[in-house]
Amino acid sequence: MFKRDPEKAAARQAEREEKRKGRAEAAAQRQAEKDALKGWRRPHPAETTMNFAAMLHLWPTSKYGETGIGSVLGGQAEFVNAGAHKSWTATRLVGGVATLGTSAVLAGRKNKGAAVINLTFGNGAAQTYSVTPESGTLRAANQYVTAFNALAAQLAAEAGQQ
Q: Residue 137: exposed, middle, or buried by beta-carbon count in 10 A (0-12, 13-18, 19+)?
């Protein structure tokens, strides 16, 4: 009933094959880039630690020692913890006692104090990030700053050797 044009079928097959080749080449290139990055990070474990600490926060991640803001090389990080913690206030404790604990569970504890991360990048750019006073976030912030400074020192030492 319907006749297929062999030339059109061959042309479509050639297009599909060309697209398949392009996708395979792009996948191979992405894999080569991933392997190169993995090879670079092997002697620079601080970058992996820094990116892990920044995973759920708004702190900049790094790739080959470069962030979206500037280079880690020549940069410095500082963690300022001015007594950041969570605590019960008198009002919340009294409310919890009066309602037999139900409002205390709903209200929770109040944030007290402040903590920030001050970052200075190699290009002179500076950023300040607020840190919530939860123990996990404070721990991650401290880990991030330590890893940032370690990576900056390692990159500076490598640049000095060259």
A: middle
